[in-house]
Amino acid sequence: MVNRPNAIGHEEDTFLPPERDTLKQSMALMRHLLMDAQLAVSLIKEKVIQQKAIALHGRMRANCAERLLAQKPVVFGERSTWTL
Q1: Distance between CA 37 and CA 50 in Å, rounded?
Q2: DSSP secondary structure, 2-63, as one string
Q3: Is residue 26 part of a domain?
Q4: Mean pLDDT of all residues in 45-57
Q5: Is the pLDDT score of 23 beyond 60?
Q6: Mean pLDDT score of the chain
Q7: Left if phi > 0, otherwise alpha if psi is -120 to 50, otherwise beta: which for 72?
């Protein structure tokens, strides 16, 4: 992941001053675009994880309800209780 801008370094001498400025601006723009894209991907991943957690929770609740409904009540006099 890109966290911060880096200097061009030893390649600076191969470019004329206007080319160097254009290159620096282009590289800075690309770094910012890359950082924005990385943020967007991490937000999408977070949303997908939340959606999967919600779906899993729903399936677990449905499974629990099915198990409870499948149990047979045990009757003791006038009161009935559920067996486990």
Answers
A1: 20
A2: --S----GGGGGGS-HHHHHHHHHHHHHHHHHHHHHHHHHHHHHHHHHHHHHHHHHHHHHHH
A3: yes
A4: 95
A5: yes
A6: 81
A7: beta
DSSP letter assigned to residue 66: H
In a domain, 35, yes or no: yes
Query: Contact 23/39 with Cβ under 8 angstroms?
Result: no
Q: Supply the pLDDT for residue 51.
A: 95
Q: How many domains does the chain have?
A: 1
70 to 38, 58, 63, 76, 82: CA distances (angstroms): 48, 18, 11, 19, 10
Is residue 48 pLDDT above 70, yes or no? yes
Looking at residue 70, its pLDDT comes to 81
Domain of 51 in residue numbering reads as: 15-82
Tokens of 32: 């910012």
Any idea what DSSP says for residue 75?
E
3-state DSSP call for residue 67? helix
